[in-house]
């Protein structure tokens, strides 16, 4: 899980930058506040890891063997 968290950090930051216009306040806090990052990123990494392992990616459920 630790390696996954390290690997997913940049994509999360990239996504936050893309979504800044939707929620500038939270995106800015995530980008600038290291203490907040230390709380948020492990949570987001776990949620993404679980979703990927369950075959759920960006709200789409992928059945095993289909892709």
Helix content percent band: over 70%
Q: What is the structural class?
A: mainly alpha
> What is the general shape?
globular
Low-confidence stretches: none
Overall average pLDDT: 76
Number of helices: 3
N-to-C order of helices and strands: HHHEE
Note the beta-strand portion: 5-15%
- Count of discrete structural domains: 1
Distance between the termini: 23 Å
Describe what you observe in this structure.
By secondary structure, the chain is mostly helical. The chain has one domain. It has helices at 2-19, 24-32, 34-53; strands at 56-57, 60-61. A two-stranded antiparallel sheet has the order 1-2. A hairpin with a 2-residue loop joins strand 1 and strand 2. The longest helix is centred in the middle third of the chain and has 20 residues, at 34-53.
Features:
67 residues; two-stranded antiparallel sheet; mainly alpha; single chain; globular
Summarize the structure.
The chain has 67 residues and is mainly alpha-helical.
Layout of secondary structure:
Blueprint: H1 2-19, H2 24-32, H3 34-53, E1 56-57, E2 60-61
Antiparallel strand pairs: 1-2
């Amino acid at each position: 899980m630790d390696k996954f968290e390290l690997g997913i950090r940049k994509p999360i930051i990239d996504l936050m930058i893309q979504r800044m216009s939707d929620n500038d306040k939270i995106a800015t806090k995530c980008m600038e506040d290291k203490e907040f990052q230390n709380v948020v990123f492990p949570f987001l990494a776990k949620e993404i890891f679980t979703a990927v392992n369950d075959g759920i990616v960006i709200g789409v459920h992928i059945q095993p063997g289909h892709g």
